[in-house]
């Protein structure tokens, strides 16, 4: 099978898990059904009921990269991921209102964050979201040493790696389970449809109805 993205093909990049699950109803609204389940299939390119449409399964953080370089025509990515990527080469036509959460600062339950900030203390902050964290603390005028992690940020304050973390929070269950408290919300997060800018021009006829179907279906959900 030729796996290169060609003119007559539409390639969608999605990550497994919540984004894939939450995108299925939007695809259904556009008449597209994915024919294999990424949780059980080892395939990374999944067929759909439309032979011209295929779905790439990639890491959530890699979705913008595949779309930026045109290896995928469109994709779905969280605002958290898009802010770290920078959004270059991407058109972001629709906030899909899926995978909703917030980006927050959290600390050990016993740590007086407000006081540390007032005192002008230099904070060690562990996060996967270094760009967002840097901007947030710069805006507040707080000096930070950022420690880049790739997951399980909640562990860092527990073992003394950092004073604080910047991570996404939804129910707050993970923070509670690890005796951490949310001390500051940085922003609300949801996932967006991202489209390769060149593909939008060259494949507009195929892409536009899908973008509109996603737009309408996400409005109904929200
Ligand atoms: P990667 O696999 O690349 O490390 P990830 O594990 O963060 O990424 P997911 O957990 O699938 O990937 O999250 C995808 C998106 O869903 C995130 O970018 C974020 O926007 C959103 N998200 C993350 N955690 C939650 C949550 N607990 N509830 C709701 N939405 C969330
Ligand atoms: C995300 C995030 C937090 C958790 C927050 O992890 O990294 O740890 O969700 O959600 P909560 O406030 O409802 O507990 P996820 O469940 O996606 O695990 P992963 O990052 O390891 O995929």
Automatic annotation (TrEMBL):
Recorded metabolic or biological pathway in which this protein acts: Amino-acid biosynthesis; L-histidine biosynthesis; L-histidine from 5-phospho-alpha-D-ribose 1-diphosphate: step 1/9
Assembly behavior: Heteromultimer composed of HisG and HisZ subunits.
Biological process annotations from GO: L-histidine biosynthetic process
GO cellular component: cytoplasm
A GO MF term: ATP binding
Family membership: Belongs to the ATP phosphoribosyltransferase family. Short subfamily.
UniProt note: domains: Lacks the C-terminal regulatory region which is replaced by HisZ.
EC number(s) per entry: 2.4.2.17
ATP phosphoribosyltransferase catalytic domain span: 59-215
Organism superkingdom: Bacteria
Keywords: Amino-acid biosynthesis, ATP-binding, Cytoplasm, Glycosyltransferase, Histidine biosynthesis, Nucleotide-binding, Transferase
Function of the protein: Catalyzes the condensation of ATP and 5-phosphoribose 1-diphosphate to form N'-(5'-phosphoribosyl)-ATP (PR-ATP). Has a crucial role in the pathway because the rate of histidine biosynthesis seems to be controlled primarily by regulation of HisG enzymatic activity.
A Pfam family per the record: HisG
Protein name: ATP phosphoribosyltransferase
Reaction(s) catalysed (UniProt annotation): 1-(5-phospho-beta-D-ribosyl)-ATP + diphosphate = 5-phospho-alpha-D-ribose 1-diphosphate + ATP
Location(s) in or outside the cell: Cytoplasm
């Amino acid at each position: 099978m030729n796996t290169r993205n060609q003119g007559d093909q539409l390639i969608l990049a999605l990550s497994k898990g919540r984004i894939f699950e939450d995108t299925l109803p939007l695809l259904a609204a556009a008449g597209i059904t994915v024919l294999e389940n990424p949780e059980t299939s080892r395939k990374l390119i999944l067929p759909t009921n439309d032979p011209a449409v295929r779905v790439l399964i990639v890491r959530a953080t890699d979705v913008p990269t595949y779309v930026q370089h045109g290896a995928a025509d469109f994709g779905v990515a969280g605002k958290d991921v898009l802010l770290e990527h920078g959004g270059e080469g991407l058109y972001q036509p629709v906030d899909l209102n899926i995978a909703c959460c917030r980006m927050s600062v959290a600390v050990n339950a016993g740590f007086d964050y407000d006081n540390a900030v007032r005192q002008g203390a230099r904070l060690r902050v562990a996060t996967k979201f270094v760009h967002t964290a840097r901007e947030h603390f710069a805006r507040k005028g707080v000096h930070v040493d950022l420690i880049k992690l790739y997951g399980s940020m909640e562990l860092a304050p527990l073992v003394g790696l950092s004073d604080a973390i910047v991570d996404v929070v939804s129910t707050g269950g993970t923070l509670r389970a690890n005796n951490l408290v949310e001390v500051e919300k940085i922003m609300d997060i949801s996932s967006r449809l991202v489209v390769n800018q060149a593909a939008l021009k060259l494949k507009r006829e195929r892409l536009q109805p899908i973008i509109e179907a996603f737009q309408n279906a996400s409005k109904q959900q929200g």
